[in-house]
Amino acid sequence: MKTQLIIADADRSAGDWAALDTTAALTGTQAVEDESRDVKFVSLLLRASARVEHSLNAILVDWDLNLLQYRVLGAIVRDEISAPGKCAKQLHVTPPIVTRAVDQLYAKGLVSRVRGSSDRRAVTLSPTLGGVKCFEKARVRVDMALSAMLPSGDGGERYRLLSHELTRLAEVTENPTRFGCR
Fold first, then answer.
1. pLDDT (mean) for 122-135
2. Residue ranges of the domains in the chain?
3. Architecture of the domain delimited by 2-149
4. pTM for the complete prediction?
5. Of 60, 103, 105, 129, which has the fewest beta carbons less than 10 angstroms from its beta carbon?
């Protein structure tokens, strides 16, 4: 790049080139600082995510659930998702992960599974009465815990900002080429 500039601007003085080099160095420094800031942000996000998961798992022990089981049960109860594949898609996990969680929920009597009559591979999920009660009781405690963890006291502005930025981050990671990444 500097060679091209020298050919195009052969009459520049040494001071001009020093100024250009300083500008390039500052631009490079800014890029490193931006990258460092991004790495720190992702690190903080991962750390926060792990702490939230740990805290919620500690709460869910009272119902003999882990966070994944709670999320799957919630998709079945609240969102009325009856197909394991749709549940996996909504929760952004793979179908085998949902299958394992459903197996565990089934063993606890919280969900029922009905195989299709024409296609034995097709499974319809539905919550049992015990599953609905369990989810509703756990949801109240999970909601209270999340409310305590999230920003408040400013009319919800920090929550809205955080929610907006996390939604944008999710969109970028789900479709990186749409946002000019990769």
1. 94
2. 2-149
3. Orthogonal Bundle (1.10)
4. 0.70
5. 129
